[in-house]
Amino acid sequence: SMASSSSQQVPESPVYSEEGYADVDWDDLGFGLVPTGYMYMMKCSKDDEKFEQGQVIPYGNIELSPAAGVLNYGQASLCNGLFEGTKAYRKEDGRLLLFRPDQNALRMKLGAERMCMPCPSVDQFVEALKQTALANKRWIPPPGKGSLYMRPLLLGTGAVLGIAPAPEYTFLVYGSPVGNYFKGCSAPLNLYVEEEFSRSSRGGTGGVKAISNYGQVLNALGRARSRGFSDVLYLDSANKKYLEEASGCNIFLVKGNVISTPATNGTILAGVTRRSIIEIARDLGYQVEERDIAVDELIEADEAFCTGTAVVVSPVGSITYQDKRIEFRTGDGCVCRGLCSNLVGIQRGLIEDKKGWTIEI
Ligand code: COI
């Protein structure tokens, strides 16, 4: 099992360039790991199914048994791992804001049920995020420069040999200050429709945030990137006909006043940003449809955009399907721009949060 906190690698004392801030170039943040001072750890043995004694500890490497369930998921999806992603923002007045962390907590719970893992309660999960954000306050970018991306992990860390749930589980939260996920900021994405590999299948784990959903996209993603595309757009594995999602974000199409996105039928991740954008769009008077979207419909769309905690709302400039490049409207006046500024305004505390989505800490 993992080492106790006393044997964690303690990072050298951080150097502060300015009162209250870590020594980070806040104008040059992308989506790369910038280690912070602290992480949160909480454990649970399979016997009592309860997580307890969570604590903030110095950020550092963790120690794992070679037989840890999480390392042996070739055995089955029983001993897998789950992750989440959520951001903390620094408001102009210096207070910190979390965005809908309860939604990530609930999604991890659903994933844990699917994977036969015990899971922290919603309250424990939210408390862990609060403590991680507060402990790492110096790494939370100044207002407008980015956010602290927090990554909760739930791992089967106990040793197993046969196919069985692991006897011990570890819940961890670490963070990294981040700016834009895709290089070039708001430059539109160019997506490539992948036809060989699938991201998920009916009855699989595509609907939960299993770590294995993301490892298996790397092949197609690397191939598309080497051809100059920003990301891959997956089709349903059975028919290769309906849109699913990109490697780490959901997809939306806009046609006139109608906004559509693939329905979450078990193969598509129920993104927190996806759900928030659906609600914001409806509030703004758009008609939003969650349904099966055939790849043939791309040709009729005015706009396309991707949503996710990491990518926020990213405009799509083109989607290439069977070597045919379909282009979409982007730039000023786009539907996607308006939706994005509304969402980010709430997340950063610039627009009044009438929905109770943000938690001030
Ligand atoms: C997120 O947007 O938070 C995700 O988990 C996607 C990840 C691939 C960066």
Descriptive overview:
Helices cover 18% and strands 28% of the residues. With 361 residues, it is an alpha+beta fold. The strands form 2 sheets. Strands 8, 9, 10, 11, 12, 13, 14, 15 and 16 form a 9-stranded mixed β-sheet that branches. Strands 1, 2, 3, 4, 5, 6, 7 and 17 form an 8-stranded antiparallel β-sheet that branches. Helix 1 (101-114) crosses helix 2 (122-135) and helix 5 packs across helix 6 (335-347). The protein is globular, with a radius of gyration of 20 Å. The two termini are 33 Å apart. The site of 2-OXO-4-methylpentanoic acid has 6 residues, from loops. Residues 85, 214, 248, 308-310 line the site of 2-OXO-4-methylpentanoic acid.
Which residues form runs of ≥5 with pLDDT under 50?
A: 1-11, 13-17, 74-79
- Residues in β-strands, percent: 25-35%
SSE string, helices as H and strands as E? EEEEEHHEEEHHEEEEHEEEEHE
Which small compounds were modeled alongside the protein? Answer: 2-OXO-4-methylpentanoic acid
Tell me the helix content.
Answer: 10-25%
Structural class: alpha+beta
- Number of separate strands: 17
User: Using only CA atoms, what is the Rg?
Assistant: 20 Å
Assign an overall shape.
globular
Q: What's the average pLDDT?
A: 89
Counting DSSP H or I runs of 4 or more residues, the number of helices is 6
